[in-house]
């Protein structure tokens, strides 16, 4: 499984939420409480597309997951770490 680049991840979120192209969105742009002002439904949509595309489940009751939703960069790092862990576990089981 290929880990997406941070830019690909950003584009996935923009496309998933149909965000306005007039708003400059960077990896550091806060997802909640900032200019984007996303809500819990948006978080569920992001989580669903991440689960579907990358087979990574984001648990809403997990504090680390909530912190990862701070911005695109932190969410990307969180998902990439989970993907790496899954790949390593898969390789260890295959050995």
Structure, described:
- The chain is mainly α.
- It has a single domain (6-94), classed as Non-ribosomal Peptide Synthetase Peptidyl Carrier Protein, Chain A.
- Helix content is 59%, strand content 0%.
- It contains four helices and no strands.
- The chain has helices at residues 6-17, 40-54, 63-68, 72-94.
- α1 crosses α2 (40-54).
- The radius of gyration is 14 Å and the shape is elongated.
- The mean pLDDT is 91.
What is the strand content?
under 5%
**Using DSSP, what is the number of strands?**
0
**Assigned CATH superfamily:** ACP-like
Distance between the termini: 18 Å
Largest sheet descriptor? none
Q: What is the 3D shape?
A: elongated
Q: Round the mean pLDDT to the nearest integer and report it.
A: 91
Top CATH class: Mainly Alpha
Helical proportion, percent range:
55-70%
What would you call the structural class? mainly alpha
What is the CATH architecture descriptor? Orthogonal Bundle
Number of helices: 4
What is the CATH topology assignment?
Non-ribosomal Peptide Synthetase Peptidyl Carrier Protein, Chain A
Unreliable stretches? none
Give the count of structural domains. Answer: 1
Order of helices and strands: HHHH
Radius of gyration: 14 Å
